[in-house]
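Problem: given the chain below (670 residues), write out its structure.
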Amino acid sequence: MSKKTAAKSAPKKAAKSAAKAGGSSKSLLVENRVFKPAAEFAKKARISSMAQYKAMHAESLKHPDKFFGREAKELLWSKPFKKVLDWKCPNAKWFTGGKLNVSENCLDRHLHDSRKTKAALIWEGEPGEKRVLTYQQLHREVCRFANVLKRHKVKKGDRVIIYMPMIPEAAIAMLACTRIGAVHSVIFGGFSAESIKDRVLDSGASIIITADGGYRRGAVVPLKKNVDDALKGKDTPVKTVVVFRRTGQDVHIEEGRDVWWHRELEYVDAHCAAVAMDSESPLFILYTSGSTGKPKGILHSTGGYLLHAQMTSKYVFDLRDDDVYWCTADVGWVTGHTYMVYGPLALGATSLMYEGAPNWPENDRFWRIIEEYAVTVFYTAPTAIRAFMKWGDNWLKKHDLSSLRLLGTVGEPINPEAWMWYHNKVGGGRCPIVDTWWQTETGGHMITPLPGAVPTKPGTATLPFFGVDVGIVDDLGKEVGANEQGKLVIKKPWPSMLRGIWGDKKRYQETYWSEFKGWYFAGDGARRDKDGYIWIIGRIDDVLNVAGHRLGTAEVESALVSHPTVAEAAVVGRPDEMKGQGVVCFVTVKEGVKTSHELASELKKHVRNVIGPVATPDEVRFAAALPKTRSGKIMRRLLKQIAAGELIKGDTTTLEDINVIAQLAASGED
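Solution.
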């Protein structure tokens, strides 16, 4: 039997065998396609075999002091650490006694060799402007702006809000904070004034760094106005607002509070010594949504976070001095922190930064950028990949993507068909794909293939990274069997783990450490296949309970996208008196496909055939687009409300296109 035939027949066989077994939490999707690392890639990779990976992973769990102590010596320490780990659940202290500075590790240590004149950041604005900052130039700009912060009385431990477009100054502001020991909190440029106010009040920030505006699909995002609105009416701790001139439109400048970035630089020089920080000193706060409605200020510290960022950039992306690396995430998300700024710069790599949308002015903007800058490593989200699929292959064919040598995905599980399209069309069948699972809370990659060592399967994040001890357990904390769904837990501390929720120790304990004593509960569901590979099912909240069967929404979405007409799908549950929950599918079809009642029926049958009768959708709704944030994440919360016929509640300001909601609410099966 050929691989192709086996792959096609596998889901049906799995459905039949699962039905016989009667297992309500068994995964019914099986993936038999396996892609071994190319010999040429493996030969040059830092981790070049499964044997090497297994030996290093075993050492990292059994002898973490030895393993991480050795890795940490690659960082620049102003004072050596005395102890690798001090662990009293849920509080971890890594590299105690040691002192270092993040800015110094990302910049200064690269100024003594050829990296001094190497590109650190390559930037392209949405309108088309281009800038390159070498490590020497970036160091100078960071020092200058650090002196601006000091001029405005910002000191070690103070909190600084950064609300910027995707421009080099966002990274400069972050690194300037780390240089003087201030704690930054970056707010995604799509968030509303109310969101800014909440974060200012919670963090106690005394200063906001922003811009007059930013560009998105040819329009100007009014960043300064949003800051003004956030600071109205209620006393806040903010004393200073620094404004970078990006778009040039008129903005309100409040005397005594607001200052222009470019004018402030006139008062400072380019020398600023890096402050030696304790390894456990707070580095940044990054707010993520909470179930109570109040955002959680995830706190990360200095030494452990930086080490994990550098290690994963080195081993997962296998970054080299001649790479041009592009992480497409916004700097306002943790991916932008770890894998656009800190990880690549700590390693001395060249990091590309793009300001705007992937389809402005046309659907090939990303491919044009890859060709123009000869990008070698490309890291993006599954939602973006599915959008590329929808737009069609012709946009790809206009460009030479042969510079690419490695691809990555981040943000949510990638369905196998999107993985295959990414592999074949973008990577030309030659590039390994690192499908990475991690969270804001984890700080860096937790489950991921190492591209020169681990054979990959479409749709799985594969195996744990060094120091990561993963369990997949039932509600009582007992390990589940192969291909059974369970809760994903981390059993040991790791260097880049969150150190708490800002100002709320009790919430930190209750949110992450109360479900299973001594273990971190990620909030995600997962399963292990017979080879030990880990498949992320999605948030536990998104697992459907249909007639007593636990059904992962990711599996239904994968089944839908495997149909040749479907570009993207999102699946949610709605209340059902008979079954507990019904399955509602929101589907976007590929260019040129006409939607109809017949197609909806065909898709229902397709899901039934691929997974089994229990997964048969109750409703298929066709949509021109799905509700996504500007970072590309599908807002399933809104889809649940639409499926249940409820009014839309909650903040929708981060939506890429607010009109999508009205269209979806009015949609139904053709």
